[in-house]
Amino acid sequence: MNRALAETLSFLNGLIAVVMVLFGLAAGYRISGGTILGTLSGGFVGFLSAALACGTIAYLALIERHLATIAGANPDNLARGIRREPKL
To answer: What percent of the chain lies above the pLDDT cut of 70?
Structure first.
């Protein structure tokens, strides 16, 4: 069950990042009264927010995948303390 939740979060992470950038664009457009500079500024702020929030989640998911590879690609091995050398 944890594996399914982790994979779902990894998938949704990209969608959330796109929504954050689009929300930044829309907010910049509304706040600036429709100017292109305000819209681009809002998009930049949305991009930075997405990079910080979703980038952190992406790095955690990447670390989890690497740890699963090191443990022999079996999450049960981590719980039992079994270590299998990865194939090269």
So the answer is: 82
CB 47 within 8 A of CB 22: no
Domain limits of the chain? 2-75
Tokens 């270590």 identify what position?
Answer: 83
Q: Alpha carbon of 73 to those of 14, 42, 66, 85: distances in Å?
A: 24, 42, 9, 10
3-state secondary structure the chain: CHHHHHHHHHHHHHHHHHHHHHHHHHHHHHHHCCCHHHHHHHHHHHHHHHHHHHHHHHHHHHHHHHHHHHCCCCHHHHHHCCCCCCCC
Q: Using an 8 Å Cβ cutoff, are 40 and 29 in contact?
A: no
pLDDT at 37: 95
Q: What is the dihedral of CA 59, 60, 63, 65, to 10 degrees?
A: -110
